[in-house]
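Protein chain data
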Amino acid sequence: MKKLLFATILSTVVYIVNAQIPNASFENWTNFGTYDSPDRWGNMNPTTASAGVYTLLKGTSTPAAGLAYVKLTTKGVGSAVVPGIIVSGQLDSLTYRPISGFPFNSRPQSLKGKWQHMGYGADAATVAAWLTKWNSSFQQRDTIASLSFTTTGMMHSWESFTLPFVYRNPNDPDTAVIMISSSGKVPVKNSFIWIDDLSFNGIVLGTETHEIPSGISIYPNPASSFLHINLYSSKDDHAIVSLIDNIGKRVIVQEMEIMTGTNQLTLDFDKDLRSGIYFLQINSSAGLISRKVIVRK
């Protein structure tokens, strides 16, 4: 396994975010006669109920935490295939896009939770989140941070996940939106994802940077087919290295063991990786390092 280490050591103070996600463990539900709906979460059941189809169900058998969890499943509704979707606010049932979220003004490092999932064929579940702020000057919402993740393989027992945000704006948000779907762009019937025990993980309140003579180097930048990373670390550690596109989707993810001293890492780009601006993110116990990378094919 390739080894890597930090060229810059971050002394970071991390606190638990006090303002959390409404009904994050899905313990509170309302019955609407033929189906149950988790409070504060928009979903597709109000639209599909007339056909006797429910893409969201309340799970109570062996929850990851508490007494209940969400079961999202892609199902056929007439001639259409409809994914199971939840949004921490209002959901547009025609576009499958969020309309609103919930008030939130902190800067969490990541979204955590527990899941089980399986995609049929080439299908896969997706998890996305946005932190936004209303811009009164331009009468629009600015994206402060976002994340987007597509599951791989299958998981038939509860597994914890941690998905990091990518920040693009120094301001604090005023709204958060979380959206989870049992399918991707081309839904396939019976694909599913079960979700429980969501939370935002910490916030970096202060960052002090100590430069080390050997430095950090990322080259070439712009890059076309690969990226070399030289890093230095004062201790052994474990890190997740990600290349993230401009909408927050992780296009390359590698787990690495960091060794004390100077090490090197090479990220090889897939031939289908498009030109554009990306963010290289290194996440370890020492903190989070993010660097802008330009890909030019």
